Structure formats: structure tokens, C-alpha cells
Amino acid sequence: PPADLQRAISLGIAKINVATELITAVRKSLLDQWGAGKNLWAPIAQGVAIEAMIPVLEKWLRLTGAAGRA
Q: How far apart are CA 4 and CA 18, in angstroms?
């Protein structure tokens, strides 16, 4: 839950693993493209899959308080 995450960060947690969620977004994108009969030529399919990662990254940036902090 977000409150637990914020508390953990306030207590010094500095690393949060989000790779599984990112990989899941990429995999779902590729499977959706494949199921829809779209072009799976690597540069095209990967570009669409990378776009699927953006909402996941934005969510974690918000949840961790890192949004807008470069």
C-alpha cells in the first residue's frame, strides 16, 4: 500500500524493485500485438512495448515521491 511504501522510504529504504512490473507491461504489449496480428518486426514491436512501460514508471515515480525530482 502507498502509505507503507512512504513509511519505508521515510525510514531509509532506497531501492525498490519494479522490474517484474515493467517486464509484465512489455510482455503484455508484445502478446497483445501478436494476438492482433500486428507487425512484430523488432523495432516497431519494441517501440510499442517501451511505450507500455511509461504508465508503470510514472506510477512508481509518483508513489515514491520521485516525480519532478531530477
A: 16
Q: What contacts 25, CB < 8 A, 6 or more positions away?
A: 49, 52, 53, 55, 56
**Gap between the terminal Cα atoms of the chain:** 25
Digit-coded pLDDT (tens) for 26-48: 999 999 999 999 888 888 999 99
Q: Is the pTM higher than 0.85? A: no
* Residue 2, C-beta contacts closer than 8 angstroms, at least 6 positions apart: 63
Phi, psi of 10 (to 5 degrees): -65, -25
Rounded Cα gap, residues 60 and 30, in angstroms: 22
CA–CA dist 1, 63 (Å, integer)? 9
